[in-house]
Amino acid sequence: MLEETERTYEDARTGLGPVSACEPNDEPETGLPGGEEEPPRKAVRDLTPRELGMKGEDMAAAYLERNDWFILARNWRCRFGEVDIVAQEADDDDTVVLVEVKTRLALGERADEMPELSVDAKKRRRYRNLAHAYIVDHPDVDSIRFDVIALNVVGESQARLRHLRGAFGWDE
Q1: Going by C-beta distance under 8 Å and a sequence separation of 6 or more, which residues neighbour residue 99?
Q2: Gap between the Cα atoms of 31 and 36, Å rounded
Q3: Considering just the CA atoms, what is the radius of gyration of the chain in Å?
Q4: Distance (Å, rounded) from C-alpha 98 to C-alpha 172?
Q5: Would 156 be classed as within a structural domain?
Q6: At CA 122, angle to CA 96 and CA 171, rounded to 5?
Q7: DSSP letter string over 95-113?
Q8: What CATH number is given to the structural domain containing 135?
Q9: Range(s) of the domain holding residue 116
Q10: pLDDT tens per residue across span 98-111
Q11: Are the C-beta atoms of 72 and 87 separated by less than 8 Å?
Q12: Do the domain assignments include residue 28?
């Protein structure tokens, strides 16, 4: 069952939430100590691909939280790779959802690009391996679903978001 949700979504700065991983997450914390002011933000067109991806993951996590999802982990890692977001819907405590977030800068002629198309067979196979590792690491998990959140960043603080629930399955 593939269900797609598309919205225009305002960027929101969110905290990272809890992180669970096979290996420690060595990413530096965001924000400055002592309440110092942060340096001015880069224009969206000046972001590196990694920075754009992180911005997309922040927006996807904020979208999920605003829709009453629980973020169980961000950037969960094991030997097979990394899951962008591990989450659960508030009304379904039996299913853990592994979310792949794909973000593209969609200014001008690129406004109709579909980032979700980059979740190819190789990426889906890797996510299935990640799911097996997640189950080994969390034996209480009964069910896993694979979702994709695709974001087209269309302005400094706006993106078009598509949430593909059940984007692929175990047997593809």
Answers
A1: 60, 64, 83, 84, 85, 86, 87, 147, 148, 149
A2: 9
A3: 16
A4: 16
A5: yes
A6: 55
A7: EEEEEEEEEEE--GGGTT-
A8: 3.40.1350.10
A9: 3-20+43-168
A10: 999 999 888 766 66
A11: yes
A12: no
Using alpha carbons, select from 28, 6, 13, 7 the residue that is nearest to residue 58.
13
Q: What is the pTM of this model?
A: 0.74
Q: Kindly state the tokens that stand for 90.
A: 């508030």
Q: For 109, left (φ over 0), alpha (ψ -120 to 50), or beta?
A: alpha
Whether residue 34 lies inside any domain: the answer is: no
Supply the mean pLDDT for the chain: 80
Highest mean pLDDT among 34-48, 62-76, 150-164: 62-76
Identity of the amino acid at 116: E
Residue 21: what residue type? A
Backbone angles phi, psi at 122, to 5 degrees: -65, -45
What lies within 8 Å, CB to CB, of 40 at 6+ separation is none
Query: What does the alpha-carbon distance between residue 101 and residue 63 come to, in Å, rounded to a whole number?
Result: 12
Q: Count of domains in the chain? A: 1
94 three-state secondary structure: coil
Residue 109: per-residue pLDDT: 61
